């Protein structure tokens, strides 16, 4: 039965289930979000966070069932921006305000009708309705609200006549977020809303969400944002649930902060592992007891003629007791085998940088050097040198030139002036912000083998990296989530480790657990690492050098911490 939709001022799900053929995404989800509440969705990549948000927004899902209650006007922010490169940013903003502009026009027309209409009562009623709608939409402050949102998200300096194809990926995402906020729906659904926000923009969004009158549901990997913005959490990770073999793994609602939830989840995982170990030990003891007790009957000596009667009587009593113990042990064994908790699944985690042919020749020297490099009006770098084991974090607001700098280092962006020198044989790998695979019908396993070659793919199997779940290895890459595709892109880079590893917002679209594992692995990476990131958690833990850009120029350079 398809999903049944009902209208209300709150958002409620009852028994939601979604499957794609034989693959169940989630089953029997139930939760409620009242006006003013903000529910954060968490879980590993691919557990169904984006699918759930689309379903809540009213999108059709194959093999979906359950009951949804929600407001009539629901706004959805997707990770993928739904704009064409030829769209003008001003048109996108005005389209978001179309409903408010229509209310404003109706108010003007109703006001004119008061003087011109021959039916004074009807004209007055029309004007009253239009005035009420205008007051609820606050049409008189719409231009001020537009400017406030654009400024708060760091978009005020971008001309409204610019084409979407002319702005950065982060700026496109922020225009999509601005348009959604200006549309002011009754309920907000946000998929990774902080992926392209700097500190100021993230703080602005947090304040907006805390003041939002309707229900808010958002999926995020950003721990700081979850702690500050969420009033509750919904964990969709099936590994979270301690279930019997026959039970259906569901989701868990938690009413505290994300930091508190991490501690609670770790405690429950430890209890689950202890319970599993205790039950497996008890199963081994019961199986041994059943086998040994059953053999007892056949290992006694035969009776003499004088005590045959007594011995027969005693043996009969003994056999009954042994038989009873066997039956009791068999009953406990059968019950425990049926009701035992399943083994806690190993979390899908980053297994570290694999070994491989990484080293250049042993001679010392820089890997790369930029001298007086500029790229139009996007970047101007006087000098930048990369040593063989350099660790450099590039920071700055959106549009500051971080991605452009990585593009120059990768050889994908040609400087308009200056020189870029690289060591002979240097191999550079770039993990881009926006992952696009040319052939969406090809599987991750096939892409991996094609990119690495059959021999290297055998030496470093895709499964050994812990980035692509076995169940996803042979699915078309086009049906994978954005996070799953980014995991694959990461695998394609690290399976043949480059001498210079460039990462553009590496924690975007990755689960918090994997992002942490990636950061730890990069600390021992056998080459140079350059990261461009807004991630507040990553930046707080960073011990390497830092280069802060402002409007394409170096604003500050901080050397790596000693040790």
How is this fold's topology laid out?
Elements: E1 4-7, E2 11-20, E3 23-33, E4 38-42, H1 49-56, E5 64-70, E6 74-77, H2 89-96, H3 98-116, H4 120-137, H5 142-152, H6 169-183, E7 187-191, H7 199-210, E8 216-219, H8 223-229, E9 232-235, E10 252-254, H9 258-296, H10 308-339, E11 368-375, E12 379-386, E13 391-395, H11 402-410, E14 417-422, E15 428-431, H12 444-452, H13 454-459, H14 482-494, E16 500-504, H15 512-522, E17 528-532, H16 536-541, E18 545-550, E19 553-558
Parallel strand pairs: 1-5, 4-8, 4-9, 6-7, 7-8, 13-17, 13-18, 15-16, 16-17
Antiparallel strand pairs: 2-3, 2-5, 9-10, 11-12, 11-14, 18-19
Compact overview of the structure:
The protein has 563 residues and is of the alpha/beta class.
């Amino acid at each position: 039965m398809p999903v049944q939709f009902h209208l209300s001022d709150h958002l409620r799900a009852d028994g939601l289930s979604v499957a794609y053929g034989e693959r169940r995404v989630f089953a029997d989800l139930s939760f409620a979000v009242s006006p003013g509440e903000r529910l954060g969705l968490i879980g590993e990549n691919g557990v169904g966070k984006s699918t759930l948000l689309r379903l809540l927004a009213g999108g059709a899902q194959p093999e979906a069932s359950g009951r949804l209650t929600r407001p009539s006007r629901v706004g959805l922010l997707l990770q993928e921006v739904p704009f064409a490169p030829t769209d003008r940013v001003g048109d996108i903003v005005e389209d978001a305000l179309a409903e408010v502009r229509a209310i404003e026009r109706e108010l003007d027309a109703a006001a004119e009708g008061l003087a011109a209409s021959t039916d004074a009562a009807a004209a007055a009623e029309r004007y009253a309705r239009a005035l009420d709608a205008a007051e609820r939409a606050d049409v008189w402050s719409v231009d001020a609200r537009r400017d406030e949102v654009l400024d708060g998200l760091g978009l005020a300096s971008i001309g409204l006549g610019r084409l979407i194809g002319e702005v950065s990926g982060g700026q496109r995402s922020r225009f999509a977020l601005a348009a959604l906020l200006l549309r002011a729906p009754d309920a907000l659904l946000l998929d990774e809303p902080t992926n392209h926000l700097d500190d100021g923009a993230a703080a602005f969004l947090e304040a907006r969400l805390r003041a939002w009158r309707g229900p808010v549901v958002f999926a995020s990997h950003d721990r700081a944002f979850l702690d500050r913005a969420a009033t509750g959490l919904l964990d969709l990770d099936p590994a979270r649930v301690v279930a019997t073999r026959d039970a259906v793994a569901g989701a868990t609602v938690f009413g505290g902060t994300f930091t508190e939830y991490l501690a609670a989840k770790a405690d429950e995982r430890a209890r689950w592992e202890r319970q599993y170990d205790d039950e497996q030990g008890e199963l081994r003891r019961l199986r041994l007891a059943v086998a040994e007790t059953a053999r007892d009957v056949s290992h006694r000596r035969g009776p003499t003629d004088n005590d045959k009667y007594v011995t027969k009587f005693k043996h009969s009593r003994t056999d009954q007791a042994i038989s009873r113990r066997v039956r009791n042990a068999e009953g406990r064994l059968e019950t425990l085998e049926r009701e035992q908790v399943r083994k806690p699944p190993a979390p899908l985690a980053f297994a570290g940088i694999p070994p491989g042919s990484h080293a250049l020749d042993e001679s010392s020297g820089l890997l790369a050097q930029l001298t007086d490099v500029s790229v139009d009006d996007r970047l101007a770098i006087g000098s930048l040198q990369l040593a063989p084991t350099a660790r450099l974090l590039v920071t700055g607001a959106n549009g500051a030139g971080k991605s452009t700098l990585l593009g120059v280092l990768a050889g994908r962006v040609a400087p308009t002036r200056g020189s870029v020198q690289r060591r002979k044989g240097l191999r550079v790998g770039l993990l881009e912000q926006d992952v696009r695979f040319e052939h969406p019908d090809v599987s991750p396993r096939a892409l991996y083998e094609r990119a690495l070659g059959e021999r290297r793919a055998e030496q470093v199997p895709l499964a050994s990296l812990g980035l692509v779940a076995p169940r996803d290895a042979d699915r078309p890459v086009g049906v994978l989530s954005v996070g799953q595709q980014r995991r694959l892109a990461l695998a394609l880079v690290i399976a043949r480790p480059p001498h210079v590893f460039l990462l553009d917002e590496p924690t975007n679209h990755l689960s918090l657990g994997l992002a942490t594992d990636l950061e730890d692995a990069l600390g021992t990476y056998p080459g140079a690492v350059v990261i461009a990131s807004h991630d507040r958690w990553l930046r707080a833990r960073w011990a390497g050098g830092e280069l802060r850009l402002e409007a394409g120029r170096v604003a500050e350079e901080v050397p790596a911490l000693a040790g």
